[in-house]
Batch of 2 targets.
Target 1
Amino acid sequence: MNKINHLQEGASAYEDLHTERIVCYFLKKINLFLLLSLVSLASCQSPKKSTSSISITDYRVFYDGQDMGYNTISGNFVKKDNILTGLFTGGPVGDMTTGKRPYLITSDDLGKTWTEPALFGQELLINPAEWEKEAVRLGLFGPTRKGTLICLGDQFVEGENGSGALRDPQWRDHTLNIGRKEMNAEDWTYKRYPTGTFLGEQFAAGGLQLSDGRLIFTIWGAKNKGENWRCGVLISDDDGISWKYRDVAFEPDFNIRDKPGVIAGFNEQSLFLTTEGKIVSIIRGREKLGRVTDSPKDTWFFRSESTDEGESWSAYELTDIAGTGAAAVGLTLPDGSFLHACRVPYSREMYKLPEPDLYGLHFARSYDEGKTWQTEHIIQRDPEGKPFTNYYNAMNGQFLKLNDNEWLYIFGQFDIANGVYRILSCKLTIQ
């Protein structure tokens, strides 16, 4: 039996060697032809784009209203005619507590000073006299190509009288509110989308606008009670008047959960628009779905792409970047690479950390449309130099365009131990 195996192996080796000699023979024969062809092709191709460089400066406190009682760890900002308008959520800390309300602020000096916060969207309250029993959260997007501003976010009421919290943290069947303010309009108009309109749970965030005017926003949640989370997109072709839903990623298998009764799955997304018009979603996968083997507290990001403006999406696939707390829209640089911002993971060995004992904000870059990533920059202290000692000190952020070469990255600072709830920013200069 061994002899037969040896004979088979020898025959296989001979065939491989014979094939190799034939290939070499023909390669030598056509070598000159290939060389001339490559020279000809090179003369017809456009020059390769140079790699974009990034410098990060002006790291500072962007908004801090704590002295006036406005604790906030998140906000969305738009720029129009050199005026910044921001919308943040104020109220008790916690995803599932009531008493949250949106506030509007403006700045004419890029966030050095701000107007006093003004309550926003109060017409959405079910019972204004008992507003502390509700939570209204809104983010801001725009202006669209038609000059329209859009706000969107969820709304819920307390589960039991006096509880100040949801009835069931595993089934957050909230209402989704979407508001519009057209250019030159005096007032906002709102439309309510009750639970079940797009998903049973409807956590939406602003997204991007395509060259043809199509709006694509992110949304996630469980479609039906007891199911795993899924993520998708909301699409509008009429400047935000009407919307439709499309799935991006969903894994129905309950085995991805750590505990049978605790929901897991896909949730937050970061959308990237390539220079060719492809949309790439970098997706957070919770618990066993994306767990890092050597660092069980961490999860890998996943990836999906769309070549038909968000109507359909490829099967999800793992990337090699881990973390959470990313921006809803990533930055595509002039050279076509992606810039992603997310939390430094729990692992101390995954990335080369300037300060191995600290957490913080991780800027990462991809040159293959989000499949693989490399560190661009890491921030591990606040602007005053105080360390980020907790995983959640750096919250989800936003890339805000200032001009063709400059962007702000704006993100929340969430520090329960030191009682710090404010918004930070740094400036990215792209060359």
Target 2
Amino acid sequence: MALTIIDEPFNWVVRGQKIMLIADSDETAQPGFRYGLAITIDAKTYNFYLAPAPDGNMYFDIAPLVDDLRNEQHHFHYGFGIDDQSKYLLSASITEWWLVAGVLTENEGSEVTMTGRIVINGYYQVYDGYKPNPEVGTDRIKYVLQFSKNYAMSDRLYTTHAWYLSNTWGVGNPTVDNVVWIPSFEDDYGTLSIPGNATFMFNNLVDNMRMVLYKANGTTVNDTIALSGFGIETLGVYPGNLNDWAGINCKPNQTANPDWRFYEVFLRTGTTQSSVKYRFYNAAVYGQKDCLNDKIRLGWVNSRGGWDYFNFIKKSEMTDEIERKKYRKVLFNGTTSVFDKEDRGLFERRNLVQQVLTVTSDYIQEGEFLFLRSLLVSNQVVWLTTDFGGNNIALPVNLDETNYIERKTRDGKQYNVSFKVRMANEYWT
């Protein structure tokens, strides 16, 4: 008697793919044979009794059970890495069952198990192939942090944004394949998530984060931050997060480092670079500040299961869409005076208000059109702003757009994009 798992997910599982569990048994000829499958996701267990496929195997796709995974939000976090729970823990057990005296009965001792899996909130495409390995293959689909071309959990690639001053600053070409340029303002908040230990990917041995800030005169200050070793470790690496963090040297602001050029963040194993360098340059000083309009900053869960961000710096407008619920009342006050001149015949019971914010970008590059695709398809988008008391908040929003043109800018023309961003909650009246 033998029950064997033929195929199972890797330890690091991306939600958006076929997450197949395949098994076979040499007992399928037993009367009424069933595979007993128990899938445990965090603390919840789902039980199934499955008839064999025509070839005798059990085929089960776990993906529909984890499709509701959503990310935690730590946009304004500063300090050492935080233990991000934007994941599910996944395990399974398979047993053999068949009819004994008309009763479906377990074959004792037949159990085989799958344990130690983590499901993250990312997705692959069919052209990535069946079950991509998170430790091998192209850098775009890998998650392991081992070499200088490996990406964190962000859709920003070295081709997303080419920064023309990189040569002038003596830090290489604008599109070096292990450098990602990110235009940033001093009050931009955001996080970068990474696999923080080797529990789910054996070659993921990163243990520290290196930050180097380049001042206006080209001199540098730096920090080395020890990682905490969480399964998913989220790091507050944008300027606003660093400026709130007391005790570090890399302060991208006008007070500490006037007209700072850029700072870079990358992961290391000991002293060995184990990720691309994310370079945040001073957009306010170098060409992306618009004094006439308010900056609108959106964040969204990307295809790699982390958060990405983009600033829309051109004209933005809020539209209030009002649905009025009305009824008409007979003019009669129950007395011989019949009605008062202040009486109202047409009443508004309740006004339903939806607010829609139209945002517009600056001219963007071809790589940024591709980058913004993950914003358009994301089901978790927020507007990073402040409340009336000046406190940082992340308002949940949805995008109204149902189509998106990924323009090619190699024709020399300049393009920007405009989106309608609908507040996820009604404006209460």
